[in-house]
Amino acid sequence: MRAFLFDFDGLILDTEAPSRAGWERLYREHGHELPHDKWALVVGTHGAWDPMAHLEELVGEPLEREALNERRYAHELSLIEAEGLRPGIEDYLAAARRHGLKRAIVSSSSRRWIEMHLRRLGQAVGWDAIVTADRDAARAKPAPTLYLEALDLLGVSPQEAVAFEDSPNGVRAAKAAGIFCVAVPNEVTRSLGLDEADLVLDSLAELPPDELLARLGQRALS
């Protein structure tokens, strides 16, 4: 094993629950409920569904998108800034350093978004690669593009990496790239179904990183 590849939103930092809460609040202000089945389409990817366009269809008229999005974003950001690293993340980052493994973030979000939060969390340095879709739907998960780019940048094969994901779209992207995938769901993704992952954990704190590495080593020998 030579590399740990981490998703960002919902995996390193729980931005998923605040994001959904922001949209739920906006929908309720207009007398409607955010459809969670539709929302599931956008988790871990970009451009799969437009919640603002759907809300406009429900209310039957155009909305002041810019003003509403600014207010929604401010609310979401206030919730996100109260969040810290998800349990177990620090242990896995420390284990990567200890074992000389490369560390990368592979995300459908923008690099600016990720770096902003990494600075706040004190995790801005030490990454060997940060690969993002930057609002390019064609590159976003579940396409394997981002993972394949990360492997190329790190100089490792799919068999030499493990991906950590929280969403079905992320899991599909990792598996399509041929990478062993550990799914760690959050409040939003727990009910979405992560059966395509090689291993599903309630939390990274549930399985010490050295134990995971031992399991992967045994798997490689079998």
- In the CATH scheme, the class of the largest domain would be Alpha Beta
What name goes with the CATH superfamily of the largest domain?
Answer: HAD superfamily/HAD-like
Order of helices and strands: EHHHHHEHEHEHEEH
Poorly predicted tracts of residues: none
**Strand content range:** 5-15%
N-C termini distance: 15 Å
Count every helix, treating DSSP H or I runs of 4 or more residues as helices: 9
CATH architectural category of the largest domain: 3-Layer(aba) Sandwich
Shape: elongated
Please give the radius of gyration in angstroms. 18 Å
Alpha-beta classification: alpha/beta
- Estimate the helix proportion, in percent: 40-55%
Largest sheet, spatial ordering of strands = 3-2-1-4-5-6
Q: How would you name the oligomeric state of the polypeptide chains in this document? A: single chain
Give me the count of strands. Answer: 6
Into how many domains do the coordinates divide? 2
Sheet of most strands: 6 strands, parallel
Integer average pLDDT? 94
Fill in the CATH topology of the largest domain.
Answer: Rossmann fold
Secondary structure layout:
Layout: E1 3-6, H1 16-29, H2 36-39, H3 51-59, H4 65-80, H5 89-99, E2 102-107, H6 111-121, E3 129-132, H7 145-154, E4 161-165, H8 168-176, E5 180-183, E6 199-200, H9 209-221
Parallel strand pairs: 1-2, 1-4, 2-3, 4-5, 5-6
